[in-house]
Amino acid sequence: xxxxxxxxxxxxxxxxxxxESELTxxxxxxxxxxxxxxxxxxxxxxxxxxxxxxxxHQFKWKKDQKISNFFWTNNDFVTHMIxxxxxxxxxxxxxxxxxxxxxALSYADLQYMYKTYPEFNHFGRLMLEKxxxxxxxxxxxxxxxxxxxxxxxxxEQRPNLLQxxxxxxxxxxxxxxQETLSRIRAKRP
Length: 189
Prior knowledge:
By secondary structure, the chain is α+β, with helices and mostly antiparallel strands. Helix content is 49%, strand content 26%. The protein is built from 9 helices and 6 strands. A hairpin with a 2-residue loop joins strand 3 (47-62) and strand 4 (65-73).
């Protein structure tokens, strides 16, 4: 049931009973198995997802290697924000890395909610601010040198990734080789 999503939305911003009722009727849920894609390069992101539990990453192909650049886990909203907001094809992929339960709301339904229930705009603004801050933090993370400091910042900010992501995914996310990551990890107590 989509009450999980409604509870998260209401913890972020107040919405009316009418908005809650209509939103509940629009949200669908499904289990997605590891290895499935929510979005592939060249597709337009037509949904925003809420991940009740699971793990996913956004990545880009570089030759034959996946370069991870964003991760989502339990209680995260998942989407390719640029493609979703502009309704244009994306240049990246969103892959499920661990069996997940997700809820989906279409772009059209979200726009309807914004137009019909002005209080829902507050929630949308807060979500965009959260996303912007995460992206800005990632931009800052990529500028930190040396590589060891990037790793330490990741440990501080997102320690759960260390248990969920592979060393290859973490290395690509931190823009370093797996060998460099292994050396850094070997030095840590």
